[in-house]
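Researcher: Quick sanity check before group meeting.
Model: Go ahead. Protein one:
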Amino acid sequence: MRVLAIDLGTKNIGTAISDGLGMTVRPVETIRGASTGAAIERLKSLVDDLEAENVVVGVPLRMDGTIGDAARRALKFIDRLRERLNVPVVAQDERLTSYEAEQTMIERGLNAKQRRARSDEFAAMIILRDYLSSLKIEE
């Protein structure tokens, strides 16, 4: 099952895709500074172009698991995506993914400028990896 992951930021949206077997993940692109409507249209194009069968969106819950403003914004975005996409859209807890993405990029030797440019994509890859792992646990 090919899954598209979305890391929804305040300014940018990072995306990542899995292979058809759900074994590997790779970054796709960062959608920068687009309005919500334009971002949703771009995501719809990515779903079609990449033949995604499922979309997972990171929801930044608070550390205690409660829903704050950022999580509420993500859930509202998920509702809008569900109206526009013809594939299932699910939420995935994304606590600490930004920190993990930063650490991964440092380990790979990316400099500060490269990390800023790609942090959303790396966060989307971690959201996707965690989502795919949760599916394997349920099997």
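Researcher: Fine. The other one?
Model: Protein two, sequence then structure:
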Amino acid sequence: MMFGFGRHPAPVIRPLRADRAEACARLHEHSFAHPWSAQEFAALLRDGSGLGAAALDPANGRLKGFVLSRLAGDEAEVLTIVVASGGRGKGIGGALLRDNLRQAMNAGAHAIFLEVAADNASAIALYRRHGFVPVGERPGYYRRADGARATALVMRLTLA
């Protein structure tokens, strides 16, 4: 599957491991107003409840995107999903999400939740395509770089 890359090979999807914490932090920094540190990523990936997938460039092994979820009993929560700006709109996010959903099901999750900024139409469309439905809102949940607050849409997917 080419993920819309044209002549460029599709990224390789692999489990996300703690040795990629620095690369995760760098990518996260370019995508979010309040990024997580490498130490936070490493801790989540080492604690045993973290489920993650990495999209790697097959030519050089560089991280092109990742998803990180946490398992709690028979539920999971997508904590963050990031695709490098040059790879957006090419199917990487969908490939990462599908792999993460598979991981969650294999770990025994029956449902998975996430929050997304209510004005992030492309992310909401991605989640809806994968079966997520809105179940609530969290007003003022996200703090933007300029200090403004944004509402989070809470979404849920029942896993088969």
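Researcher: One line on it for the slide.
Model: The longest helix spans residues 92-106.
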